[in-house]
Amino acid sequence: MPDPDPAGADRDTTVFGERLPLARRYAEHLATSGVERGLVGPREADRVWERHVLNCAVVAVLVPDGARIVDVGSGAGLPGIPLALALPDAHIVLVEPLARRVEWLREVIADLGVAVEVERGRAEEDVVRRRWEGADVVTSRAVAPLARLAGWCLPLLRPGGSMLAIKGAGAADEVERDTAAVRRLGGGVPRIERCGSGIIDPPSTVVVVERVAGAPARAARRRGRA
């Protein structure tokens, strides 16, 4: 991976503070062993910094201080690890079902020396829900359509907690299509936030869904499986 643009040093420090060297080390993992072991596509190696690391880290502005975060379908640790580096007081668990990805995540976390947990499993599994429900925030990136994602993520949230789904250009279409389903699953009206203006171009697109107090978590879980 090429060195980050020196002109962006102030920008990068604003995002990561004293943990900027760790963020750059994580980017190196993505661009090397992450590519070699199939977690990141080979064409992504030269652009992991802005396209992946910064793209996820800027979402930190939507996370409350000291939040308990569950990162669903974490894959290569996105967005969970960049958020952990940008938010040192957060408590983060990465939920990932594939053993080879879990192994890589644990190796990278040990090398970085950050307090992030890794859970092998799926968000819709009862054992995962029992261990990690009551989260303040549940994150995801390019995991599933919004309605299905809500069925997996909302049961993990405390009432009033937020699902933050990093999406692409089709986010508005997903919101229009799936709002009714999300409401039935116990979520509020989805809204779109743009994070990182002036830091990355284009900014990250995040669909935010709050879990409504008293939402039917069991029903949400069943619908998510369906």
From TrEMBL:
Q: What CDD domains does the entry give?
A: AdoMet_MTases (cd02440)
Read off the InterPro entries from this record: rRNA_ssu_MeTfrase_G (IPR003682), SAM-dependent_MTases_sf (IPR029063)
Instruction: List where in the cell it is found.
Output: Cytoplasm
Query: What does the similarity note say?
Result: Belongs to the methyltransferase superfamily. RNA methyltransferase RsmG family.
Q: What is its main location?
A: cytoplasm
What function is annotated for this protein? Answer: Specifically methylates the N7 position of a guanine in 16S rRNA.
What domain of life does the UniProt record list for this protein's source? Bacteria
Recorded source organism is Pseudonocardia zijingensis
Q: Which Gene3D superfamilies match?
A: Vaccinia Virus protein VP39
Instruction: Spell out the protein name for this chain.
Output: Ribosomal RNA small subunit methyltransferase G
Query: HAMAP family annotated for this entry?
Result: 16SrRNA_methyltr_G
Pfam families (UniProt xref): GidB
E.C. numbers: 2.1.1.-
Q: Which SUPFAM superfamilies match?
A: S-adenosyl-L-methionine-dependent methyltransferases
- Write out the residues that bind S-adenosyl-L-methionine: G73, L78, A123, E124, R141
> Which keywords does UniProt give here?
Cytoplasm, Methyltransferase, rRNA processing, S-adenosyl-L-methionine, Transferase
EC class of this enzyme?
Answer: transferase
Q: Looking at the keywords, is Cell membrane present?
A: no
Name of the gene encoding the protein in the UniProt record: rsmG
